[in-house]
Design goal:
The protein is of the alpha/beta class and 525 residues long. 38% of the residues lie in helices and 15% in strands. The chain has a twelve-stranded mixed sheet with strand order 8-1-10-19-18-17-16-15-14-11-12-13, with helices on both faces. The protein has a seven-stranded parallel sheet with strand order 4-3-2-5-6-7-9.
Amino acid sequence: MNKTVTSIYLAQQVRELDRITIEEKGIPGIQLMRIAAQACVDVLLGHASAPGKVSVLCGSGNNAGDGFIIAGLLANRGIEVTVGLVGKVPSAETDAGKAYGYCREAGVEILTAELSLQDSAFVVDALLGTGLMGPVRPEYQQVISAVNLHDCKVLAVDLPSGLCADTGNILGACIKADMTVTFIGRKLGLLTNDGPEVVGELNFADLSVPASVFDSIEPSVRMLSYEDRIRKLPLRNRNAHKMNHGHVLVVGGDQGMAGAVAMAAEAALYSGAGLVSVATHPTSVNSLVARRPEVMAQSVTTPDELKALINRATVVVVGPGLGNESLGNESLGNESLVNESLGNESFGHKSPDGARAWGSELLDIVLESELPMIIDADGLNRLSRLSPEYTRRDNWILTPHPGEARSLLGKNVQVDRLASVKQLQQKYGGVCLLKGAGTLIAGHHEVWLCPYGNPGMSVAGMGDVLSGIIGGLVAQGLDTNDAACLGAIVHSLAADNITARQGERGLLATQLLPEIRKLLNGMPG
């Protein structure tokens, strides 16, 4: 594995790294506390060299030990600082107790949290650490609420109090920090779900832990980077022609939904696919041709018409605008996918109103193909209703948002996004990309996190563009894992580049297309 790849851990793994450092490498815990505290002071003073009065809020765990030393270091610099203690004074023989003694020797006044907060311009949150599993207790909730209402800057020690280090869920109440300094290993909860909302600027301090310590713990997730992944895209030969760069077939665009399939098709073109065809509803063809003549749009009304297009393709993107008719709880099985011979009969013949069965029958035909495919949107909703024996394969990429993932797994995936994306991959095979803050991608052996993206992307059409990008990358020769990872990167980074210029509000999915082209040509800025 590339040593430059950033590793992400669960809380128990970081505690084990801490234990190995102390017990097997012989580095005292109080020494690690001092290094951690100094890292926090450096970040705090980097933001405000004259921070005014600082309130350090301490609970009763090791995070409190970091907080006590932070208070002492600030006092020794002549900065006005108080400690707001929630809970008991730690035992003198513990590392936290030793840190408390240092704090008292520095002349820091120990107060209640309420008194400590008065007139404070800066708050250091050292209340709760990675051990928090259940809801925040009432006495801590009260202090957290007071901090969030206080007009001050907040630095969180290791993670904002009240945030689950593993899932990124807020456990009843959570400090909303302006900056967080996390130690030894980056915790997954800081980077996904609610984490990015409350962490603020994330800083990392490895506490000078020996590199050999990390050899014994395999990280739970690895962080993607544009610089590493763009190298996966092959260079083009000087004598290349369009057939060298693959043929993407996009299937979708039911009545009134031509826009979805148009965005997916254009994204595949802007990503570098040599040819892009669209199999769509007869009512969608004219608008597609008028919008983008480079797309080969063809109406499909019979199975044979769709099969002919599939036979010419390298990869299929299915789902954008496919239509999501109400299927009830019926489990569709062998008779729907394999044994039924439709011949060249028109799609929709089984449905009383005709039109609403169109998308389902297209997906049935696509699933008979052995081509690699990307399934998104309405295709995922349909997939969730199929019999299990027809819903697992190695050469597809599923790209659900949390709502679609809930249909696929039958549960709320946001409770534990890492466990959920792994379950999706185990159930359906291939590569599963779970969208959201801190997008997670589960392949056959690893899980990756995309650190890019912003709330401006919460608009219609973003998923269609993503599926088209990934389809274009598969067409150009990337395997499904690499295509999903690079696709997620350029999709999110394109949005970040645009919002840096214009802000998040009002971002349009189609604005990403020229930026995607630049990123895939090695131009990140």
